[in-house]
Fold this sequence. Notes:
Elements: E1 14-17, E2 20-26, H1 45-51, H2 57-83, E3 91-98, H3 104-114, E4 121-126, E5 138-145
Parallel strand pairs: 3-4
Antiparallel strand pairs: 1-2, 2-5, 3-5
Amino acid sequence: MSTSGQPLARYAAARRIGDFVYFSGVIAVDPVTRDVIERFDQLPAAVSSQLGETGEMSIDVFQAPALVQSWVVLDRIRQLAEQHGGSMADVFKLVQYFTDLRDYPLYARVRRLFYPGEPPVSTVVEVSGMLPSRQVRIEVEGTAFIPGPR
């Protein structure tokens, strides 16, 4: 799975304005294959285990899409913050979009892995759909305060 690369359409993945870095909405799509990431086997085994993969198809088939997509989008935001000289701790605001708010508790569990201390400022919205397909269940955009070189 590749999580880096160019955006899937004509937009900037992130833009710095002064000491603020704004991240476009991130979805769990591999930019190389353009496949929606939604299964535990699309992640490193250690991550799948950390997210709670049980190995029981009757459980994992229902939980994997939300858990996997949550991890992929938050990890990509972490990578973008690092590319701009910061860390996830600098990402102070998240706007989270869900096609089904019943995915929120699983997402919140994953978000705690990225914010073990103080949580970010947060907005949660349910939407009717997201591009590029119905398989995309979660999109997250963020804002970071990362002082630039003076």
